[in-house]
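Tokens for chain A. Residues wanted.
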């Protein structure tokens, strides 16, 4: 698979087959992704991979947390509190498109809430990744995390795997941090669902659009 093909094909998958992922493959991908660019070669990412029994325990723990209605202070604001246009419209449109693909009406709040809760079961994926970073690190190092995660997702695609990066896990930093035994000086950045795509899952029919380059690109010659 060419790099250009992988970049074009990568997308967020929200339905996975009941097929385990070899932990050795995950280990190989995680190590290979560490060739991602890193300012000053700080390599600020910390990665936890979960499969099998540990992942099942976390899913069960999250099911209990969600059922209890427990809330935690988010690790950070996932979106700006004052989200302007056109970004606000794009966020609304992708949510509407996802629920439409699932056959969930705009006014069906219970169904929408149930679908959102599937995030915390990794959409049924048999493997997961958590990315965390030292609290002393700043925005430049957060960009390094993004480059690591993109590298991992492209490598996973090449290996026949599907992924879905999930910032929603930042809503439960205490639960995840405690489960992983994360040091106090480190903060959770995001999670990621990993597995083999279920081609019949309705959510996987979604293809998000990208703005035309005329909106955001300037080439000076």
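Reply:
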């Amino acid at each position: 698979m060419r790099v250009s093909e992988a970049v074009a094909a990568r997308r967020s998958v929200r339905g996975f087959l009941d097929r385990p992922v070899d932990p050795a493959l995950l280990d190989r991908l995680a190590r290979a992704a560490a060739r991602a660019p890193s300012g000053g070669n700080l390599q600020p990412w910390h990665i936890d991979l979960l499969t099998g029994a540990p992942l099942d325990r976390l899913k069960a723990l999250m099911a209990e947390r969600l059922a209890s209605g427990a809330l935690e202070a988010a690790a950070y604001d996932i979106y700006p509190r004052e989200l302007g246009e056109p970004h606000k419209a794009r966020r609304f449109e992708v949510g509407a498109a996802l629920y439409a693909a699932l056959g969930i009406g705009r006014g069906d709040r219970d169904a929408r809430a149930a679908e959102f809760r599937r995030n915390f079961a990794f959409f049924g994926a048999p493997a997961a990744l958590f990315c965390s970073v030292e609290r002393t690190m700043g925005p430049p190092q957060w960009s390094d995390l993004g480059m690591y995660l993109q590298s991992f997702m492209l490598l996973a695609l090449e290996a026949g795997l599907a992924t879905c990066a999930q910032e929603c896990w930042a809503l439960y930093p205490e639960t995840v941090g405690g489960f992983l035994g994360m040091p106090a000086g480190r903060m959770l950045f995001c999670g990621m669902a990993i597995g083999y795509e279920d081609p019949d899952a309705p959510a996987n029919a979604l293809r998000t659009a990208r703005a035309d380059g005329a909106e955001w690109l300037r080439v000076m010659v």
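The chain has a mean pLDDT of 95. Residues 139-158 form the longest helix (20 residues).
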